[in-house]
Amino acid sequence: MFRRRRWFAAAALAALAQVGHAQIAPQPVQPPDSSTQTAPPAPKPETIEIPLQLPPTETPAAPKAPAAFPEIKFPNFATCSMAELRLTVPELEHLKVAENQTQLAALLDKIGAKTVEIAGKTPDLISHEAVVSEQRDQTTRQNFSFLILQHAMGPNSRVLDEFRVDVATGEKLQTDFSERTPEAEAPPAPPSLLDLKSPLPIVPQSTGPTSRGFVSEWLYFYPANRRQLEFRYLGQEKMDGHQTLVVAFAQKPGLVQLPTVIDYNHKTYPVFMQGVAWVDAYDLRIVRLRSDVLSVPPGLPLRQLTADIRFAQTSIADVASPLWLPIQVVVTANLDGSTLRERHRYSHYRLFRTRSRMVLK
Question: pTM of this prediction?
Answer without folding.
Answer: 0.73
